[in-house]
Amino acid sequence: MRDTFRSVRVEAVVLRHSDWGEADRLLTLYTRQLGKTRAIVKGARKITSRKAGHLEPFTQVRLQLARGRDLFIVTQADAIESYLPLREDLILTGHASYVIELLDRFTYEDEIENLTLFRLLTDTLSRLASKSDPWLALRYYEIRLLDNLGFRPKLFECANCGREIRPEDQFFSFSAGGVICPTCGKGLPNLSSISMETLKYLRHFQRSSYADASRARASLEARVEQGRSIRKEAESLMQGYFTYLLERELNTPGFLKQVRG
Amino acid sequence: MLLPEPIQKLINAFERLPGIGPKSASRLAFYLLRAPEDVAQDLSEALNGLKDKIAFCEECFNITEAGHPRCEVCENPKRDSAVICVVEEALDVLALERVGAYNGKYHVLHGVLSPIEGVGPDDIKIKPLIERVARGGVKEIILATNPSMEGDATALYLQQQLRPHKIQVTRLARGLPVGGDLEYADQNTLLRALSGRQEMS
């Protein structure tokens, strides 16, 4: 704990909640001011709770936190944006949960402000809620998240020999954190392949704003068959990379697969 | 100081219960040590019977006494088996029964879908419900999962799964609670309370 203020006003997104004690809830929050933190909401499971409705997962909320003995206690809560569409469509709920799960797994409770990450989170949730192409919103989020957390994948030079990547199909190494050129790739174990087309999109996301990145949609939709395989390849590559980095399988992709049936 | 083994064992056992920390656990253990013999006796008998004498209803998965394949509600011929109310936990059945206004049957899911925790449709009792509906005779399913993100996700999934069966699927109404305060209501609740308003008669 950095200093000993008693009460603090923060803006936060509710990542997850679990039951606590008789009628309380324990929230995991991503705050604008303090990064990830946890807080108790007293009486949140009572039907007359004045705070519970403002503190559902995915909600962006203004909070007054008081420092309790070892956890924060929520004393006031006022929703800024509830992202309601995310709760009205099962697949969207799954996508939003994926966004939340990634952030939760990668961050620690360190009470350090990370404004870029907070913005990325709220922007991604509102992109999903406004029914923009979820593939775009999610891949862009993944690339930016990795950037911000210090896991930026090397997509322009070979992660092994450092030479510039030429426009041909390449390999991708999770352990080296980037693309491996075909020459180096021959002798190395545990590589995934990545097509030039998929790499082009990932590179585009890495260096563009979302407005520019979302223009990729038209070109993906123009080539129906190829577009679909690019989407699939990028998604499974990123998931493989996350599983490697987190040393654990993510929960939400499995959930989405089950729900889609 | 090292505690004698029997009491340390009891403290460890208490500590594994939800909401009980090391301090509460030792307080309970020492209370039982000092309390009259029959308090501890009753407790141990109750605990012993818990697992042996309780089973789950074959049809709705509500809790029932062992030896009875079906629970009291499912056995009751006066209850309408064309209406099934789907709830998360057996305690929710108790809450609804206390109201006394419901005359149909139940289905207890024993959990809710949670994408983040990785609880999928196969982890809770969804399949038995679909099978129950497929056997026919059901006209309406009332989805009474909690009004939370997880409860909503479960309701959406059930709605999707029940669609081919062409029965009426309803969700419990949502709005302002008794003793609540309009000023503190969240956007979601207010929106639904407004759209679900009723004419005064």
- Helix content, binned percent of chain B: 40-55%
Let me know the number of strands of chain A. 8
How much β-strand is present in the residues of chain A? Answer: 15-25%
Strand order of the largest sheet of chain B: 4-3-5-6
Distance between the termini of chain A: 45 Å
Integer average pLDDT of chain A = 90
Q: What's the number of extended β-strand segments of chain B?
A: 6
State the major sheet of chain A.
Answer: 5 strands, mixed, barrel
Helix content class of chain A: 40-55%
How would you describe what is shown here?
The complex is a heterodimer of chains A (261) and B (201). In chain A, 43% of the residues lie in helices and 22% in strands. The model of chain A has no long low-confidence stretch (mean pLDDT 90). Chain A has 2 domains: 7-81, Nucleic acid-binding proteins (OB fold (Dihydrolipoamide Acetyltransferase, E2P)), CATH 2.40.50.140; 132-260, Up-down Bundle (de novo design (two linked rop proteins)). Chain A has helices at 85-88, 90-106, 115-129, 134-149, 182-185, 196-207, 210-213, 216-222, 224-246, 252-260, and strands spanning 7-20, 24-31, 35-41, 60-67, 72-81, 170-173, 178-180, 192-194. In chain A, 39% of the residues are buried. With 261 residues, chain A is α+β, with helices and mostly antiparallel strands. With 201 residues, chain B is α/β, with parallel strands linked by helices. Chain B has a domain at 75-199: Dna Topoisomerase Vi A Subunit, Chain: A, domain 2. Chain B has 8 helices and 6 strands. Chain B has helices spanning 5-15, 22-34, 37-52, 72-75, 90-99, 127-134, 149-162, 187-195, and strands at 54-56, 63-65, 80-87, 104-108, 140-143, 168-171. Chain B has a 4-stranded parallel beta sheet with strand order 4-3-5-6. In chain B, strands 1-2 form a two-stranded antiparallel ribbon. In chain B, helix 5 (90-99) links the parallel strand 3 and strand 4. In chain B, helix 1 (5-15) packs across helix 2. The model of chain B has no long low-confidence stretch (mean pLDDT 90). At the A-B interface, strand 1, helix 2 and helix 10 of A face helix 7 and helix 8 of B.
